[in-house]
Design brief:
With 330 residues, the chain is α/β, with parallel strands linked by helices. The protein has ten helices and 13 strands. It folds into two domains: 153 residues, Rossmann fold; 138 residues, Riboflavin kinase-like (Elongation Factor Tu (Ef-tu), domain 3).
Length: 330
């Protein structure tokens, strides 16, 4: 049975993120506290799991380890393409910012899925020196989801580790989950997604050349070629564009630009009150709120008038969001 393996969580393309590196855990003979899951999005529920694991780690003098899977198990079994809520580098960075010491990334395969909970423990968790396992309220491990909390506790009694179950974290009366967040993003409800993620939903990637049509209308845009992440529905959004640690208020259009018979989906951000050339730079687009759906206008002049209204609303939303950040309330 294969031994656990991981990758160094390093973004070699962005030196600003080097401080958030999560190394592969060495064979140091120390015991550890582990939490395990897909951690797609590293949302507030995941943050609670990690925080609980870190508290056990600190209290008992253990290393903290996150074991995560890619791709998502649901994608493997359904055969459906499931873009993640956050790209791999972003997930690594977010886990590092939470204080995770070590990260083990497993390639989720049908062979791993076929393992019993005991087989998975012996092959992947026991070699880590696991003393504490922290799981979510609905977590199940192993073939047929047979390793529920009760089964894992029995396994812990046999092999000498304890299991701690974290209750669900609620938002508007229902548990926060990746599935629920995915649904809100697909519906364009970026405010609900932001509250459940604990931050705005984001896209990261390179700024590429566009058609230059925005400049011709008086609204020059940065065109993003994003890493593969779940896209919100076509429309216009109040956003923030983050470049080298500095955030700029923006309005972003996702879609096909029907007024100009666009043939391919684009992601174009107009930075408000700022003139900066971002071509070939890596940026992050943070989605704060959906302003409207994308639609065809009778003329470029009508489009410009609507963009003026979008900009005014986007500026107001960005102002309110900046105030919420300064007060510690997102």
């Amino acid at each position: 049975m294969p031994m656990p393996h991981g990758e160094t969580a390093r973004d070699t393309q962005d030196p600003d993120k080097a401080m958030h590196t999560i190394p592969v855990r060495p064979a140091n003979g120390r015991k550890c506290a582990v939490t395990i899951g897909n951690f797609d999005g590293v949302h507030r529920g995941h943050q609670l799991l990690v925080g609980t694991t870190l508290r056990f780690s600190s209290k008992l003098g253990l290393d903290s380890v996150v074991v995560t899977f890619s791709p998502h198990p649901r994608a493997l079994f359904s055969g459906r393409h499931m873009p993640p809520l956050a790209d791999l580098q972003t997930r690594r960075r977010l886990l590092g910012e939470l204080g995770v010491e070590f990260l083990v990334e497993l390639n989720f395969t049908r062979e791993i899925a076929a393992l019993s909970p005991e087989q998975f423990y012996l092959g992947y968790l026991a070699p880590l020196g696991m003393e504490v396992l922290v799981v979510g309220y609905d977590f199940c491990l192993g073939k047929g989801r047979s390793g529920d909390y009760t089964a894992l506790c029995k396994l812990g009694e046999k092999y000498g580790f304890t299991v701690h179950q974290v209750p669900p974290l609620l938002y508007e009366g229902a548990p926060i989950s990746s599935t629920r967040i995915r649904k809100t993003i697909e519906e364009g409800d970026m405010v609900a997604a932001r509250h459940m993620l604990g931050r705005p939903h984001t896209l990261q990637g390179l700024v590429i050349h566009g058609e230059g049509r925005g400049s011709g209308l008086g609204f020059p845009t940065a065109n993003l070629e994003p890493a593969e992440v779940l896209l919100p529905p076509d429309g216009v959004y109040a956003t923030r564009v983050v470049h080298r640690g500095k955030a700029y208020a923006a309005v972003t259009n996702v879609g096909f630009k029907p007024t100009f018979d666009g043939k391919s989906r684009t992601i174009e951000s107009f930075l408000l009150d700022c003139d900066i050339n971002l071509y070939a730079e890596r940026v992050e687009v943070q989605f704060l709120q959906r302003l409207r759906e994308e639609k065809r206008f009778a003329s470029p002049a009508d489009l410009v008038a609507q963009i003026d209204r979008d900009v005014a609303e986007g500026r107001h939303i960005n102002h309110d969001y900046a105030l919420s950040l300064s007060s510690g309330k997102q």
